[in-house]
Amino acid sequence: MSSSSALPSNILSIRGSHAAIHTFIGGADSAFVNSHVIETDQRLIVVDCQYLRPQAKQFAQFVRSLEKPIEKVIITHAHPDHYFGLEQYGSAKAFASASTRKAIKEFGEATIEAQKEFLGNQIPDAPTLVDNIQKPGVEKYDGVKIRFEEFQGVEAESIMTIRIPVLNTMICADLLYNQTHLYLAHGHFDGWRNAVQKLTSYDGMNHFICGHGDHAERTIIPEMVNYLDQAEQIFQTAESPEAMKVALIEAFPDYQGQQLLDAGLPKLFESRRATR
Ligand SMILES: [Zn+2]
What we know:
34% of the residues lie in helices and 22% in strands. A hairpin with a 4-residue loop joins strand 10 and strand 11. It is globular and about 55 Å long.
């Protein structure tokens, strides 16, 4: 395979003169989860690794087709649709925030165990652990500035975002979903909403790359806030996860990824029982 071969149709690229971001769009099976590779003149930074093995392998194959060394693999947060595919990267160095690294170590095995019965060989037998801590701040690769930032108490306990100013682009991971139902298991409505609103102040960012669903523009910010507002209101009165799912589908009939409601809402309601 040569690097000049045509891009697969599920790769979306944003290109500049010395940097590019290629996003692999996961399909319906994997809740439309995205993974990315940042390409500079001499190297690659992989960001998230897909969920199910078929897509994880396809994405890793695309990364290899770029024919540049992998500087690091970043895991943005400790949800399986972002880190299960890490097993595809052999000796490459994996990085995550201290909190994400710890959560994968603590809960990775149990997460696999709970899903093995349904997904069998489509998921790993054991989690690939993240060895290195990614600190927030600016790093420079081949002259390209990359800014890492950590948000806590949002869609997950910790989410790392990555800004590439030269491309006017921010990889927002699961801070943002586009036309896709949210995974609400953690119930941090306030924290998540505040983080999304903070993005308004990031001047010069035109492309907001979402964790699930298509790339977005600035209009994604009010859309996300609206979904979080409505979901929080529904949660205050809904009797059950099933009732909340029906209400959210009614409120957002065109949204994809209903399986994210099936996965997240029972956990959200467990937290309500625990705090009452
Ligand atoms: Zn996700």
